[in-house]
């Protein structure tokens, strides 16, 4: 392949940026076409009323192998969550800690009512068991639903309902824990081996760091692709581009006629931000609402994790809803009433900042894999796919797929002139 070949990447999300980085390493100068005005794709942060608002509650798991490969954690200025969670119920608050990381909490954890003592022993055993397995072993291991796995492993309904359901509903963005147990084991291992964190200035710092390392890549913002026909790109503006090779680093079913209707609907989440005078949690931990009568699944004060999420001395609360609800003017008020019932703080004190309805929050992948042969990224001659929809929904998978798409492009037997 000639270094002056016209290589186009559609989408400046994580996978598209990684593909560009890999192509640059080999001397190519790709062009990224991006429909929005910034890099990041689903990893975006907005500035609203003195707050930093991530589009949907997201975290970086520092144990992700691909994140360790591509990101400079020091430059990200990561702020870390305390391991564990706070279980919020009307009239009571329970905490679940990792006694291995916080030995001072070992006794209180042993007697915590979040689950049985047997549950806590099993959680320790599962953690140690998964640490001994490679990611490949996990993704080729037994496959059932997450809920079935937890039950078969011997966890009580008490800790499943109090902790596992609300915690992993917020990660998998589905309410039945029907997600593959392989994905559960992988994520649980990542939490055991590393930490959950956010950059001090929001999640978009991650794609911005990747962008800063691109030296020969041109990014064309606000350029929406209408369709692909072979290696011909048609933009919404009517412009036609003849490419030598293309990496589609966005939803391919929206661009390639042959793939229309072949992708399962993405998982949705509603993310509501409120500001308060101060945090009612006052520590960098996620709060879980296990009661199914509430709309809220989980919440976190982003300013407890990073003070930089606010520049006006008010606390910023992120609330996630995974249940199917109608987004209207009443939703934010209704959730504020729920939070009032949990905290005894007047609902009027929860000042609504912004609500995000994120339809393409997470791909729904059935046949999950830890990696894929580079050649499997190829859809037809000189057109390749990238995105976490090819592996499993996560930042780690997005990076893997971007790297594999670039490798597939280079390894392609087609001669590009």
UniProtKB/TrEMBL annotation:
For this entry, the protein name equals Phytoene dehydrogenase-like protein
Q: Where is the Amine oxidase domain?
A: 14-410
Pfam families per UniProt: Amino_oxidase (PF01593)
Query: Molecular function terms in GO for this entry?
Result: oxidoreductase activity
- SUPFAM superfamilies of this UniProt entry? FAD/NAD(P)-binding domain (SSF51905)
Highest taxon, organism lineage:
Bacteria
């Amino acid at each position: 392949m000639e270094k002056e070949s016209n290589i186009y990447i559609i989408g400046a999300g994580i996978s598209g940026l990684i593909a560009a980085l890999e192509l640059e390493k080999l001397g190519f100068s790709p062009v990224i076409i991006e429909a929005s005005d910034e890099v990041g794709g689903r990893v975006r942060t907005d500035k609203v009323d003195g707050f930093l608002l991530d589009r949907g509650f997201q975290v970086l798991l520092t144990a992700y192998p691909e994140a360790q490969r591509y990101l400079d954690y020091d430059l990200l200025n990561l702020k870390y969550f305390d391991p564990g969670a706070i279980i919020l119920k009307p009239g009571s608050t329970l905490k679940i800690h990792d006694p291995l990381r916080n030995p001072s909490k070992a006794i209180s954890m042993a007697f915590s009512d979040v689950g049985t003592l047997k549950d806590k022993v099993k959680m320790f055993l599962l953690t140690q068991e998964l640490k001994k397995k490679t990611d490949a072993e996990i993704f080729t291991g037994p496959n059932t639903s997450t809920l079935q796995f937890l039950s078969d492993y011997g966890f009580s309904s008490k800790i499943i309902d109090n902790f596992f359901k609300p915690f992993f509903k917020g990660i998998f963005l589905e309410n039945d824990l029907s997600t593959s147990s392989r994905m559960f084991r992988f994520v649980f291992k990542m939490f055991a081996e590393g930490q959950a964190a956010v950059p001090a200035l929001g999640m978009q710092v991650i794609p911005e760091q990747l962008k800063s390392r691109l030296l020969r890549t041109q990014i064309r913002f606000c350029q929406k692709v209408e369709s692909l026909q072979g290696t011909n790109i048609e933009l919404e503006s009517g412009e036609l581009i003849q490419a030598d090779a293309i990496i589609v680093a966005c939803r391919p079913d929206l661009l390639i006629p042959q793939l229309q209707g072949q992708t399962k609907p993405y998982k949705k989440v509603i993310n509501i931000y409120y500001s308060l005078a101060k945090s009612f949690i006052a520590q960098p931990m996620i709060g879980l609402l296990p009661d199914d009568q509430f709309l809220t699944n989980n919440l976190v004060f982003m300013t407890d994790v990073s003070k930089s999420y606010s520049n006006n001395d008010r606390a910023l609360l992120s609330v996630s809803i995974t249940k199917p609800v109608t987004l209207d003017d009443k939703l934010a008020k209704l959730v504020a009433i729920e939070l009032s019932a949990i905290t005894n703080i007047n609902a009027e004190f929860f000042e609504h900042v912004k609500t995000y309805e994120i339809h393409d929050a997470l791909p729904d992948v059935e046949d999950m894999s830890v990696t894929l042969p580079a050649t499997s990224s190829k859809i037809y001659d000189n057109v390749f796919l990238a995105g976490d929809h090819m592996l499993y929904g996560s930042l780690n998978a997005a990076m893997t797929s971007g790297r594999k798409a670039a490798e597939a492009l280079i390894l392609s037997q087609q001669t590009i002139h």
